[in-house]
Amino acid sequence: MEQLEGHQGKVEDNLKGLLSQRDVLYHEFRTVGVQSDPERKDRVKQEISALTGQIQKLRREVALCQDIAHRSGKMRER
Q1: What are the tens digits of pLDDT across the range 17-66?
Q2: pTM of the predicted model, to two decimals?
Q3: Cα–Cα distance between 58 and 27 in angstroms, integer?
Q4: Radius of gyration for the chain, computed over Cα atoms and rounded to the nearest angstrom
């Protein structure tokens, strides 16, 4: 159980970092400099998409960890 909690904590920390990076890119995407440069705009969009894919995977992993912890608690009660 401790290993699961440790792993979940690492995944959540990684998730927070990726969310912060994506927020920075969202703000950058909205700037005039990016909007006026099509190549830069496309690059930022691609980076946002890549981070979003990673974030989705990590969110699924956190949900799985929570599910495992919940089911483990039920098994201990029996």
Answers
A1: 999 999 999 999 999 999 999 999 999 999 999 999 999 999 999 999 99
A2: 0.86
A3: 22
A4: 18
- Residue 6, both tokens: 């440790």
Q: Are 58 and 17 in contact (CB under 8 A)?
A: no
Q: How far apart are CA 68 and CA 33, in angstroms?
A: 46
Crossing angle (nearest 10°) for helices 38-77 and 2-29: 160
Token look-up 């920390």 returns: 13
Q: Which long-range contacts (CB under 8 A, 24 or more apart) does 48-51 make?
A: 48/22, 51/18, 51/21, 51/22, 51/25
Longest Cα–Cα distance of the chain, Å, equals 63
Q: Which amino acid is at 31?
A: T
Can you read off the two tokens belonging to residue 32?
Answer: 């005039």
Q: Which helix (H) or strand (E) holds 60?
A: helix 38-77
